[in-house]
Amino acid sequence: MELIQQVGFLPLLDSGIAGFSAEEAVDDDCRYVLLPDGGWDWPLWKWKGPIVTEGNCVYGKFFNKKAGFISKEWWPDFCNYRRAIHPKPEEGSIEEAILMTLRERGSLITRELRSACGFNGPKMRGKFDGYITRLQMGCRIITEDFVYPRDKHNREYGWGWSLLTTPEQLLGPEECHCGRTPMESLNRMLAHLALILPDASEKQVFNMLR
Question: Are residues 144 and 164 in contact, defined by beta-carbon separation less than 8 angstroms?
Fold first, then answer.
């Protein structure tokens, strides 16, 4: 949580920039490991929920369609730029229907949202996930928390389901705007990341933000 506040932007897994991910920042014993009984343990994965709910940050698929964290300090600039290059969904589009459903319902786990939008047929899951990813890349949808199924002993298990919502509902509309143009926001983010990633090329940093 402290690192996210320090750097402002932190991909969860490999970002293409050496050392710049939560996975690479944690100790070896906090990374993914297969257990002898066939199970798995991954402390970093289990921390996602508490980080999202307590860490003063925003989580979603923001970096080349991969998940990561953005501090609330930097979210207005990131949202400002991303929404400029990923325009608002067109009227009558599937993306608009997904957003309207979330606005009406507040928040839904992915499979509930998929069902509410009528994506119940065969091979619909992958197609629907593509829409959700595009909406996250455009900062229209974020993850509010993670919900886990429970076994007969009331113990959580599995990978967990994303509880999706809109940033306006979770953070408030005022947190999705800033007093800068999209290009000013981009330049501000590029300058910041150049300082914390001195060994990364300008292209690598730009590709992460676009």
Answer: yes
Q: How many Å from the N-terminal Cα to the C-terminal Cα in the chain?
A: 24
pLDDT along the chain (210 residues), means of 10: 96 93 93 86 91 96 96 98 94 95 94 92 86 97 93 84 96 94 97 95 92
Residue 25: alpha-carbon gap to chain centroid: 18
For residues 178 and 77, the answer to whether their CB atoms sit within 8 Å is yes
Element of type H or E holding 127: helix 124-137
Chain-centroid distance, C-alpha 199:
25
Residue 201 exposure: Cα atoms within 13 Å on the Cβ side: 4
Helix 75-85 / helix 182-196 crossing angle, nearest 10 deg: 120
DSSP per residue, 51-116: HHHHSSEEEEEEETTEEEEEETTTHHHHHHHHHHHSPPPPTTSHHHHHHHHHHHHS-EEHHHHHHH
Give 165's strand partners.
142
Give dist(CA 181, CA 185) in Å, integer.
6
User: Which tokens sit at 180?
Assistant: 């800068």
Biggest alpha carbon distance in the chain? 54
